[in-house]
Specification:
about 30% helix, about 100 residues, 4 strands, four-stranded parallel beta sheet, 3 helices
């Protein structure tokens, strides 16, 4: 596996939703041979958690002026559009599959 990609998973409270999404993202990217490290935070804490982050996966709205690529994470909760969300993550991380 290449260098680990760091993904910040953001939800309203950084408890249940972000945990489910983080584990699902880790699982799906690991199956593709991509090493990831996820961290979780509340949307209100996003600015203080951006150091070293390659991508944000958010299940709640985040500020538009954040200078880190982001992907909507609802697909990882519902399963609807999950493949497209993974493709978007890979594209935004600059990984060809």
């Amino acid at each position: 596996m290449a260098n680990k990609k760091r993904i910040l998973v953001v939800c309203g409270t950084a408890i249940a939703t972000s945990t489910v999404v983080a584990k699902k993202v880790e699982e799906l990217l690991s199956k593709r041979g991509i090493a990831v490290e996820t961290r979780q935070c509340k949307a209100a804490e996003i600015r203080s958690n951006l150091d070293g982050v390659d991508l944000i996966v958010a299940t709640t709205p985040i500020p538009k002026d954040i200078n880190v690529p982001s992907v909507r994470g609802l697909a990882f909760l519902t399963g609807v559009g999950e493949d497209d969300a993974v493709k978007e993550i890979l594209q935004k991380l600059g990984i060809e599959q």
